[in-house]
Amino acid sequence: MRKSILLLIALLTLTVSCSSNDDNNNDSSTLVKLDNTAWSGVFSSTEIKIMTNNTMNWDNEKIQVQFKENNGFKLYGYGKNSQNQWIINSGPYNGTYTYSSTGTIKLNYESGATFNPLNSGTISGSVMTLKVGDNQYKFNQE
Known about the structure:
It is a single chain. The protein is globular, with a radius of gyration of 16 Å. The strands form 2 sheets. It has a 7-stranded mixed β-sheet, with no helix packed on it. It is an alpha+beta fold. Helices cover 15% and strands 42% of the residues. The chain has one helix at 2-23, and strands at residues 34-37, 41-43, 48-53, 63-69, 72-79, 85-88, 95-98, 105-106, 115-117, 120-125, 127-132, 135-141.
């Protein structure tokens, strides 16, 4: 029994370590280009990183948004709450965005969380559209 517990702990530690290394990769495969924005022109893939977690169910979907600062990506906020809001809680793109799903708001990074890159995203006027596979999310700036 003790050996099984130690093996489980070792496997969990290895999984978290691999996920952390993947998150630090800033190559083009993990970045998203958002254009047609009304905020500051075209976002290049080297300026913004928007990612989604592995689970695509509406009940527990999380969106993570990072903007580049000083050659690194800084997390500004992600998640959703019962009022169908997505929040960037600080920085040049701070604000509350509404959308048509429910869940819990997450303003701080969850250690060990694994995120996948979005396929594409656009901002047009006050509407942000994010696409992950066949799923599309529309956000309206308040």
